[in-house]
Amino acid sequence: MNLNHINLVVKDVNNAVNLFIKHLGFSLIVNRNSKMAVLENGNHFALVIWGQELNHKENAPTYPDNFHIGFYQKNELAVWEIYEKLKTEANLSFESEPKKIRNTFGFYFFFEKLMIEISITPFQDNIA
Would the pTM count as exceeding 0.85? Predict the structure, then answer.
């Protein structure tokens, strides 16, 4: 069984699309009037970016404590490279620089109220 998609609710669809394309390796499938977009990562996985305004609410959603999505990198250098690029984006906030996290190495950052993790896979034999 493969994961088909994840639906993330954000206030600013275009900024989210830019983040996922520019820094996280996604490609745009469709952007529907900056209210909802669908992206893919080349592995038969889609990311749906749902604009908060479609929920008829003005504020960005609040996710549950510790809810986040994560992306594996092949090594520490790749983690540092993404971190350095992301630091140039004005709309992001960071918990810390990359460091040891549990049994891996990485960092967390926030887009709006969504936490995103970038780390090295602890399962090195399973990453391409």
Answer: yes
